[in-house]
Amino acid sequence: CQCKFNFIKVLIKKLIHDRITNLHLINFRNHLDFSLYSNAKFNIICGPNGSGKTNILEAISLFSLGNGLRNAKTNDLLSKNADHSNQYAVHTQYISSDQRIYNIST
User: Fold this and answer.
1) In this structure, what DSSP letter does residue 29 have?
2) Can you tell me the distance from the alpha carbon of 1 to that of 73, in angstroms, rounded to the nearest whole number?
3) Which helix (H) or strand (E) holds 12?
4) pLDDT tens-digit profile of 33-86?
5) What are phi and psi of 74, to 5 degrees?
6) Cys-Cys crosslink for 96: which of 3, 5, 100, 103, Cβ 3.0 to 4.6 Å?
7) How many helices (H) and strands (E) does the chain have?
8) Reduced to 3 states, what is the DSSP secondary structure of residue 22?
């Protein structure tokens, strides 16, 4: 989908000056409990097909305008493997280009 790639290009341009230092996913898509910590300005996400690489980008996209990368319904974001939970959570720490620190959660 062309709109997916355009969104990723805009997201990358934004993240060149602003950066996420912490990302924590709970019951989000195929990630039951996933944390990512980085002070780097550029990260590479790699793994086999179906391992959740795009899901990480989708979680980040929830903090931008619109309905996220895949325009998914809220119920579709919940992990199918969640134990007795009907909620997901995405937490992030974000440092803006002027060095302000923001903690944001869904």
Assistant:
1) T
2) 18
3) helix 2-17
4) 999 998 877 788 899 999 999 999 888 888 776 667 777 777 778 787 777 667
5) -55, -40
6) 100
7) 3, 4
8) strand
